[in-house]
Amino acid sequence: MHTDEAINAYIVGQLLAGEPYHYDPHDRHGPLLYAVAWPLARLGEAKSFAGLTEVSVRIGPVVVGTLAVFLFAALAAQIGFPSAAVAALLYAISPLFVYYSRDFIHETFFVTATLAAIVSGLRLLEKTSVRNGIVFGTSTGLMLACKETAAIHFVAFGIATLAWPGLLRAPRGFAGMIKPALVVLVSFCFVLGISYSWGGLHFHGLLDLVQAVPNFASRAGGQGHEKPFWYYLALLGGGWSGAVLLALALVGALSRKVASPNALRVLVVYTIAIVILYSAIPYKTPWLALNLCLPIILLAGIGVVWLSQFAQ
């Protein structure tokens, strides 16, 4: 097992031993991974750290990673069901997602929450309903409950939202967005409060989250994990399969035959933004490439369907 997996398992072992959970803003990520792993370990009859096995800790990422495959179907209204189905297939067989969906680290949970945020975010742009606002706020809250790097995605979401045409025009206008924005904020804060306070037992965890900002800002400088700007694109585009995936994503980005052209425009801008943001940060690890691979796979699914229609 990877060292990070062992550290995460040790934290679960502390919980099994009856020790209270405290968020560590200096060298740990959010509590969601442990909140899922702890009850699963108990169901597996593990009573201590020594009783944990690879299966008992890795089952959570496996289940969450598998659920993400089915979550692609929720994008059918925006990119079409065939494109969503192809993207789900590409996700299911992607070497990166297959490998890390069985690692006991935060990334699979984070990527799944990100996918839920993309789905609900696009729906919220199309229809500013309370339900869509709650789902989007909950999804983004779960992202931050997984990892503090959610802040990078929030910046990319904001940039991508600007690509939606007529966002602030009548009849919606700025005033019409106040209510859904408040719904999103309340849902986001609720999830954040429940998770970082460990169910309301330790509200100091929310203050610790604020203290984590300068720590992770300094970590972005590299701390021994410095990689060049093009590292992720070289990783994702390596080999013939990677090159084909990037080519299909480019085709999908240029496609015009999708259920919602506006949604495609937002997705393309988000992909570009997230690639640039992650590539510009010196600190890089292979599993962080999952965050770039997700929107690329969505665009590749659109590209495959467009090429099949073009061939006909």
Task: Name some characteristics of this structure.
312 residues; mainly alpha; 0% strand; globular
What is this entry, summarized?
The chain is mainly α and about 300 residues long.
Structure notes:
With 312 residues, the protein is mainly α. It has 15 helices and no strands. The chain has helices at 3-16, 32-43, 54-71, 76-79, 81-93, 95-100, 107-126, 130-146, 150-161, 178-196, 204-219, 231-236, 239-254, 261-280, 290-311. The model has no long low-confidence stretch (mean pLDDT 90).
Overall geometry comes to globular
Instruction: Give a count of the beta strands, DSSP E runs of length 2 or more.
Output: 0
**Helix residue percentage:** 55-70%
The CA-CA distance between the termini, in Å, is: 48 Å
Uncertain runs with pLDDT below 50, 5 residues or more?
none
- The number of helical runs is 15
Mean of pLDDT? 90
Radius of gyration: 20 Å
User: Major sheet, described briefly?
Assistant: none
Give, in order, the helices and strands: HHHHHHHHHHHHHHH
Strand content: under 5%
The chain-level structural class is mainly alpha
